[in-house]
């Protein structure tokens, strides 16, 4: 009888659910709007700079028109140079020429000073010739310079994204590697992923047994251990990193201790080294790996393990076939969380890592703060974000992990 | 494996037994139709020749200064359905866990089939166990759950599937084999747990309040099913419960636990009709309790004085002396409303306090002159207005007098928190 009653009840419930589903959305609306304006919009705006770059196009309106008339490739004729001179003169007057010169310099190393010199000449002499301009700026007589300018007049560019992968346009339709001395980003990405992997594995090695211990402790003891793990979690990451610099120094506590214990015979360099960086990052990331694992482990009924044993499962079999599959979602969630957070580490590599331990975030920060090359920063950020999302989607899709289900 | 061993113990004497047991459990691969009945084995009555299949000898379990189990001596016969019954904290679950191997006795020895299991880990004891919360593996299908004990024993794949099918058939869940446990109802989950505990043919199955999480109707249905399976397989079952009606329904024998020791062990009717202590009398079934003082003792009987000059004749249980405080028990269904010429050992005047309708019977609350209130079971038709004067009577043989107070092993206490 209940089987007859069920479908009607169900449809009724789902119909009611549907009309109610907008109400919770309305409750969340303020948060969603805040996220959209303070988070979504700025990210889109910044990332769009990786592909939208109008500086050169804005600086050279007449040159663009002249180049359109000039069909041939290579160094253009007198008319284009004249238009270029007028554009530079206007830019000099408007003060935008510096930005243009800097921008061109990223595509054409050494172009900045030469362009500024030509701009000054053009401002003094209305009728400057092509020859005079090439004399002042030898780069303008070269084919690659004009192909760089032609590419730059396009407001949409793939230059920065390609650069993020150490690639560039080598011809009209061909892409090739940048010269070895300019190739940095692949190595930095590789290093970032390597360190994130090592830290993730280290936290897992620490967190798994600890979480297991905590689930088997009396509740009061488990709470104490949990607080001990969480205490550093509640302090600022800067403070924690600073604490590690005290510990890891050559004449710091750890070296003192290891010498005293006779583990090492000499003081080892932990500061400004990869080992030190991984130690500090592991400590900072431990709670992120631990908590999802702990929450999942707590949900496994002890009676299941007893049942498995009474049914003939030896301890290792019980662990492998009953326990591990059930705690795996927590392990994956914890590892994914730590891995993703490690990809974006900034302050710890700056303070503890050496020159060769700087991660991709440090490069992004450098482009934003020091070099003012927001386009490159945006391109690197885009690659970082895309790889993070890709990782997350892979985990959720193919490993059935649901981060939102984790307690 | 163990069943094969057991079968060698039982001689192939009766042709009926040989017929009942096509022996397919030990002949792997033969998936015939009669395989369905292959679970049938010697009925319990035949198998009980081995009176000490499981033997507890002076077993004790202490947690610090707390004695969860004290000096336990107990034998379980092969094929027997024995129930541990007692309030929570009485040590019954601790005893079961020691047998399963999850706890080690602080003192004493447990033997299984004549061999000490002291150093045997749970996974080597070959004991099936069913838990109150089912303890199914949520990440495995029903079929995989049932196959688990076989696969850890490295049975060939071709043999596992038919065995799983047969075990699931037995609990009528064959068509659910691809579901996950969470997609089943509580009763179905418990049946899966049962199939899983039986599929590897253990000689002994332990059940720790397996029906405790089910509602009343389902519980009663499962009790019958469990009993049928027990009779069909002839497997030895040790069952733990705090539900006395469950214990009475299913068991061959019941061991009553209180405060870490067995107070009484016997068949359900012996426990019901001849409780050895006041605790058992109060714990098993419903009982009226009257406190009084012994007036005279003799010939296994005694006369007890109740307040207000009432006198009751009763069976004297234990050491009773005149003047000693005494605890009388008499079952509601043994008290009759006497007619005029009724002859009885005890005839007491009472007034009706109230009457509770139960469908098939009524419960009459009758107040004696002593002020004590007795419950009496009467037929559903009688009308009893409050205040009506009645006469109650019952034979002395249905009324038991226990020493009150200084009873070492029978005090109806509910202390401790082990189990």
From TrEMBL, chain A:
Keywords: Cell membrane, Membrane, Transmembrane, Transmembrane helix, Transport. It is found in: Cell membrane. Pfam families: BPD_transp_1 (PF00528). The chain crosses the membrane at residues 193-213, 220-247, 327-347, 376-395. InterPro entries: MetI-like, MetI-like_sf. It is a multi-pass membrane protein. Residues 189-395 form the ABC transmembrane type-1 domain. It comes from the Bacteria. Gene3D superfamilies: MetI-like. Belongs to the binding-protein-dependent transport system permease family. CysTW subfamily. This is Polyamine ABC transporter substrate-binding protein.
TrEMBL record, chain B:
Keywords: ATP-binding, Cell membrane, Membrane, Nucleotide-binding, Translocase, Transport. Residues 1-44 are annotated as: Disordered. SUPFAM superfamilies: MOP-like (SSF50331), P-loop containing nucleoside triphosphate hydrolases (SSF52540). It is an enzyme of class 7 (translocase). It comes from the Bacteria. Its EC number is 7.6.2.11. The keyword Signal does not apply. Residues 11-29 have a biased composition (Polar residues). Residues 54-284 form the ABC transporter domain. It catalyses: ATP + H2O + polyamine-[polyamine-binding protein]Side 1 = ADP + phosphate + polyamineSide 2 + [polyamine-binding protein]Side 1. Belongs to the ABC transporter superfamily. Spermidine/putrescine importer (TC 3.A.1.11.1) family. The complex is composed of two ATP-binding proteins (PotA), two transmembrane proteins (PotB and PotC) and a solute-binding protein (PotD). Involved in beta-(1-->2)glucan export. Transmembrane domains (TMD) form a pore in the inner membrane and the ATP-binding domain (NBD) is responsible for energy generation. This is Spermidine/putrescine import ATP-binding protein PotA. The gene is potA.
């Amino acid at each position: 009888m209940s089987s007859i009653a069920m479908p009607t009840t169900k449809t009724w419930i789902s119909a009611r659910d549907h009309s109610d589903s907008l109400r919770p959305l309305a409750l969340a609306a303020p948060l969603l709007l805040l996220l959209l304006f303070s988070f979504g919009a700025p990210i889109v705006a910044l990332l769009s700079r990786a592909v939208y770059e109008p500086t050169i196009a804005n600086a050279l309106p007449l040159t663009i028109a002249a180049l359109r008339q000039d069909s041939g490739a290579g160094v253009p004729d007198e008319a284009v140079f004249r238009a270029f001179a007028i554009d530079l003169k206007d830019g000099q007057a408007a003060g935008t020429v510096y930005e243009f010169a800097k921008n061109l310099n990223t595509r054409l190393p050494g172009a900045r000073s030469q362009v500024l010199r030509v701009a000054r000449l053009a401002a003094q002499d209305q009728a400057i010739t092509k020859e005079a301009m090439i004399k002042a700026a030898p780069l303008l007589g070269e084919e690659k310079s004009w192909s760089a300018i032609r590419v730059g007049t396009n407001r949409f560019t793939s230059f920065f994204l390609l650069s993020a992968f150490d690639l560039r346009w080598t011809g009209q339709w061909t892409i090739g590697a940048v010269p070895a001395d300019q190739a940095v980003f692949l190595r930095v990405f590789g290093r970032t992923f390597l360190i994130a992997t090592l830290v993730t594995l280290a936290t897992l090695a620490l967190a798994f047994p600890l979480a297991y211990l905590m689930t088997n402790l009396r509740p009061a003891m488990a709470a104490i251990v949990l607080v001990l793990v969480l205490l550093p979690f509640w302090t600022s990451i800067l403070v924690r990193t600073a604490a590690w610099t005290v510990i890891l120094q050559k004449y710091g506590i750890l070296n003192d201790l290891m010498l005293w214990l006779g583990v090492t015979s000499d003081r080892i360099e932990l500061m400004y080294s990869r080992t030190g960086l991984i130690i500090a990052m592991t400590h900072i990331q431990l709670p992120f790996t631990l908590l999802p694992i702990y929450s999942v482990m707590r949900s496994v009924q002890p009676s299941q393990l007893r049942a498995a044993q009474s049914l003939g499962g030896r301890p290792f079999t019980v662990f492998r076939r009953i326990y591990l599959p059930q705690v795996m979602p927590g392990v994956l969630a914890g590892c994914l969380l730590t891995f993703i957070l490690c990809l974006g580490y900034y302050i710890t590599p700056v303070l503890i890592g050496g020159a060769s331990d700087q991660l991709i975030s440090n490069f992004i920060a450098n482009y934003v703060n020091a070099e003012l090359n927001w386009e490159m920063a945006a391109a690197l950020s885009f690659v970082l974000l895309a790889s993070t999302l890709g990782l997350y989607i892979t985990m959720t899709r193919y490993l059935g992990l649901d981060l939102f289900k984790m307690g | 494996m163990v069943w094969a061993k057991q079968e060698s113990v039982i001689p192939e004497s009766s042709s009926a037994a040989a017929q009942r047991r096509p022996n397919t459990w030990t002949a792997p691969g033969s998936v015939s139709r009669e395989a369905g009945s292959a679970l049938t084995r010697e009925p319990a009555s035949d198998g009980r020749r081995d009176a000490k299949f499981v033997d507890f000898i002076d077993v004790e379990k202490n947690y610090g200064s707390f004695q969860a189990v004290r000096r336990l001596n107990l034998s379980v016969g092969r094929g027997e359905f024995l129930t541990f019954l007692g309030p929570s904290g009485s040590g019954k679950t601790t005893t079961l866990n020691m047998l399963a191997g999850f706890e080690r006795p602080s003192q004493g020895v447990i033997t299984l089939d004549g061999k000490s299991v002291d150093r045997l880990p749970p996974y080597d004891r070959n004991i099936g166990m069913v838990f109150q919360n089912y303890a199914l593996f949520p990440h495995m299908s029903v079929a995989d759950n049932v196959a688990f004990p076989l696969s850890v024993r490295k049975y060939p794949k071709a043999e596992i599937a038919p065995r799983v099918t047969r075990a699931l058939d037995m609990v009528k869940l064959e068509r659910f084999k691809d579901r996950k446990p969470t997609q089943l109802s509580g009763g179905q989950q418990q049946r899966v747990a049962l199939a899983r505990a039986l599929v590897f043919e253990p000689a002994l199955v332990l059940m720790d309040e397996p029906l405790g999480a089910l509602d009343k109707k389902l519980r009663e249905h499962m009790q019958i099913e469990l009993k049928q399976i027990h009779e069909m397989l002839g497997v030895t079952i040790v069952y733990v419960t705090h539900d006395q009606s469950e214990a009475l329904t299913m068991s061959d024998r019941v061991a009553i636990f209180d405060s870490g020791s067995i107070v009484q062990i016997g068949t359900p009717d012996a426990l019901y009709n001849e409780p050895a202590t006041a605790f058992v009398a109060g714990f098993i079934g419903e009982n009226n309790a009257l406190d009084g003082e012994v007036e005279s003792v003799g010939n296994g009987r005694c006369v007890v004085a109740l307040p207000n000059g009432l006198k009751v004749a009763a069976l004297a249980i234990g050491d009773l002396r005149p003047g000693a405080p005494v605890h009388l028990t008499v079952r509601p269904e043994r008290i009759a409303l006497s007619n005029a010429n009724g002859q009885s050992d005890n005839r007491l005047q009472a007034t009706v306090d109230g009457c509770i309708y139960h469908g098939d019977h009524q419960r009459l609350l009758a107040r004696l002159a002593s002020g004590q209130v007795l419950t009496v079971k009467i037929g559903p038709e009688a009308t009893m207005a409050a205040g009506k004067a009645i006469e109650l009577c019952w034979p002395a043989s249905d009324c038991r007098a226990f020493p009150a107070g200084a009873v070492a092993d029978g005090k109806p206490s509910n202390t401790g928190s082990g189990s």
